[in-house]
């Protein structure tokens, strides 16, 4: 028996999603919650790793419960025990070996930049005092849409060999005093969205020519792109699973 | 010499704006910051009291500095010392006896209700699972626009005698999975916005007839209105000072 839950979380309270030697992670916390509910160790598997301080509106997680609890009651039990920074939205039974991580059709991330710092949004928005030229950012962004080797947009700290990914959407919009960057794709390399955002910001500030994005992409070299934008502006907004959440 | 600063703050970190016997307040914190900058006790006076857990995008505060520091440097000094939950947006010199509290032309509050709970927004939005009928809420809201005795919308815990206030705007809008209530007026009684919101929610849920708002208003009796909505959905959005921020 395998159960899949959909959770959202406030990344500002955690050192990322996946378990790691140091710091409190979402997976650690949720694991403890499941251990308490089932009164034994329950292993869990997520659909997406998010970095330290990155929040998520959706994250699919599967686990094999040692005994049956109705999905609605699993949701209630998790929300009764979990800290307020984690919220379970739904639970459902899935096929025995189903792994959401291997069944992601596409994911959408949103990155928010504000030119008006407000303490209440400090865990959600990246503050850039200067006005950004959204049109220039979009010109640069357009070069990345499609299937490419994103080697220039991948942290050097990775063992991944195949850096070909498909971006289906990459939009840059001005909304009040904010610039919102939305990116959808079949998968993302380590720090890929944050490096893309950091590079688009350089175009928006007028410090780099947006058409240079083509050369940056072609180089397949991390050092050709610009600084990684900070984690707290990033939100994992949506995950479309194959044949699941239709 | 009198200085006026404009600050914003994350109300989730404080027990309201004004100093009080128990709990950490915005005024206490900011007072300590000014004491450190000027190396002596500096009294400060705000333009608006906000309740515990209520955030503000704007709050005007005046104080009489014992010696001159340029406005830009006051801003920098405050932001260097203050916790991240308080941010100083600007500073300016004002007339010696100027009190922003006595010069408010109008204030705007925003209240946000969400039907989709997300941990990252839990300090900003009030979660109401049921769908709210925005049109019914607006019908009820329309009765309050204008100059009225708002005795039905004032906490019983107040000594204020004159409960006549003018509401110039009261809108209820659906935005994605949220309902946003925006209210502007020349002044607000204790808990007034939150009682208005709590009453509009009853209309939105279909539990009360929105046209009953007329009788609730006429009664001038707190017990005729509905429950006070929770503080964390409320934001002090804007303050228009007479002859100041044009």
Account of the 3D structure:
Two copies of one chain form a homodimer. Chain A has 246 residues and is α+β, with helices and mostly antiparallel strands. Chain A is 22% helix and 30% strand. The first copy, chain A, contains five helices and ten strands, in the order βαββαβββαβββααβ. Chain A has helices at residues 26-38, 71-81, 134-142, 192-204, 213-219; strands at 2-9, 44-46, 55-63, 86-94, 104-114, 126-127, 146-149, 164-175, 178-185, 234-241. In chain A, strands 1, 2, 3, 4, 5, 6, 7, 8, 9 and 10 form a ten-stranded mixed sheet that branches. In chain A, strand 2 and strand 3 (55-63) form a beta hairpin. In chain A, helix 1 packs across helix 2 and helix 3 (134-142) crosses helix 4. The radius of gyration of chain A is 19 Å and the shape is globular. The two termini of chain A are 22 Å apart. The model of chain A has no long low-confidence stretch (mean pLDDT 94). Chains A and B meet through strand 4 of A and strand 4 of B.
